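User: For documentation purposes, I need each entry recorded in a consistent format: the amino acid sequence on its own, followed directly by the corresponding structure tokens. There are two entries in this batch. Please keep commentary to a minimum and don't merge the entries.

Assistant: Recorded as requested. Entry 1:
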Amino acid sequence: MIQYLKTVLTNKCPRCRQGNLFTSNNAYNFKHNLSMNEHCPVCNQSTEIEVGFYYGTGYVSYALSVAFLVTSYVASVVLFNVNINNNTIFWWLGITCFLLLAIQPPMMRLSRSLWLSWFVKYDKNWSKKL
């Protein structure tokens, strides 16, 4: 499980867990932010299984964003007593929206990495099948 999380968080190929999924390691390189290798450079696994494969990542990204918003709200209520009565909720809203925009590039990559890992399983014997 830990190896799976490491693979997804570092955007590695889910089949071999070694090759990079993206052509650039920098998520904030906006020119090549979502540019992916057509095949894994290590195991030659295709990164686009079918046409339009990554449309589903919108749902994953949405779920991650909602999880981020809920987590930040609960943490703000518990730690900083954010509520509607003293208008601190507007501070929370502004700061959280800014943070959500700031983490969107890595979140889009994470969504693609998660989506691919749900359809391509790890194969420790991938080199023997070439």
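Entry 2:
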Amino acid sequence: MRDWRPCAILILLATLLLPQIVHAQGDPSRGAQLSGQCEECHGDAGENRIEGFPNLANQNYNYLVKQLREIRTSARERYGEATRQQSAEAKALLRAKRSNEIMDPFVVELSDEDIHDLSAYYADQACNAVMVGAPLPAPKIEARCQVCHGKFGITKNSNIPNIAGQDALYLEQQLLNFKTATEMAGGAGNRRAGIMESQVRMLSDQDIKDISLYYARLPCR
């Protein structure tokens, strides 16, 4: 007679571990409930309608988690609630700082669970961004962007953002932030990423405008 106990044990373990697995990836349903405070700037289901604010729909989950955590870190620094943790992770967040004072009141009290759930919700949303105009020829510098952001602005790396169909002014502002960070004494600035800083260092303001508009006019899916 076959012994079913090993199978029963495996089923029990799977049942116990499944909630933890789901939690680690975030709960989109709970994220939808939390997203109400985000709609004014980021639109319903993450599809922005305000120039200069990013579309979040169908953005990569890991990327969203990282950005929200970094913005929360800088918000807590400004609010005098900087974490006392000395973990490698906390130090990395401080080194890779992203700062946005508009976001401060919305993220400063978010828990890690909140961040994972919000990120899961937006990552699950369909991107239906309306193109602002006809597609444009790719600027020469676009070939350098493909390495990380993928062909036509859709990447296979979940730690890197999709930029196709993104708001043009938002893209331009972020590229200028990266460029400014390389020019300021001590590398100060409100957006830091070593790879991006090295890529934008030699770009002119016109180059930045051209590449931003190019990606904004590509389909986001």
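Summary note for entry 2:
The CA atoms of residues 45 and 127 lie 9 Å apart.
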